[in-house]
Amino acid sequence: MTASRQTPEELPVGVHQSRACRGMVLLGLGLLVIYSIAPVWWLIVSATKDQHGLLYSNGMWFEDFRLFDNIDTVLTYRDGIFLTWLRNSLLYAGVGAAVCTLISLAAGYSLSRFRFPGRGIALGAVIGSFLIPYAMLTLPLYLVFSEMGLVDTPWAILIPSFISPFSVYLAKVYTDGAVPEELIEAARIDGAGELRIFFQIVVRLMSTGGATVFLLSFVQNWNQFFLPLTMLRGDEKWTLSLGLYYWNAQRTTNEVDLTALVLTGALLSVIPLAIFMIALQRFWRTGLTLGSLK
Questions:
Q1: Residue 263 domain-assigned?
Q2: Where are the alpha helices (DSSP H) in the chain?
Q3: Tally of structural domains, the chain
Q4: 19 or 290, which is more confident?
Q5: pLDDT one-digit tens code per residue, 197-245
Q6: Is residue 272 part of a domain?
Q7: Which of 27, 51, 148, 243 has the largest CB neighbor count within 10 A?
């Protein structure tokens, strides 16, 4: 005996509503995917065109594939200044993110696991600090670094990137959930010092949080614009974002149309971010308790 199949009119009202909600959710997700991917697709397509193709062809589809010619022009224009900007961006973003991650993990661990006078005030100051827009700190930093003679040096970009209140708070939250207090107390009973506990236990347990802090800091340092614009003078010290902005501003006053170079350079600037994202995926897959049994 087989059960009869219900017609759509015979289905309960709740089933119709659930299907309608599911359809609306799928439609919304589809629109969100299109909204997210469309600018990236336009950038990829535009980087393959010359000036004529950018002006007179369909902006969302290929015409004359000149991607490799555009890349060669970007890398050789003005004696390879793009590679200099790329090296500067990797220096500022990589070193700044690495030091910021170490400081943030140490500060977050201290706020989470140590009890000291003023701990609540310190945590409140950290939370209040990352609510201040970063652009508002550019002028005070410039005045301070002018007095110290650090303007137009790499330190004017690196030192501010070492400290991130949001990363400290994020590390504190990760520590609350990933580092058991019993494990820390057991290590202290066994005679381990605080530095050994931090580097051999806490850092290993915090690999997921550390990867998250590093990636967020790297992306922020990679994309920062106002600080390099304020602090740096010579184009040999510029970052990619500042250099591409200069090319874009000069594209109508230069003897060479730089529109295709700006678009191709913007596409190339995304590649390091994608590499770091893929490389750090393994830390998220390992989970929060990596190394807790060792």
A1: yes
A2: 13-46, 51-56, 67-76, 81-113, 119-129, 138-148, 155-161, 165-178, 181-189, 194-197, 203-205, 207-223, 226-231, 240-250, 259-279, 281-286
A3: 2
A4: 19
A5: 999 999 988 888 899 999 999 999 999 999 999 999 888 999 999 999 9
A6: yes
A7: 243
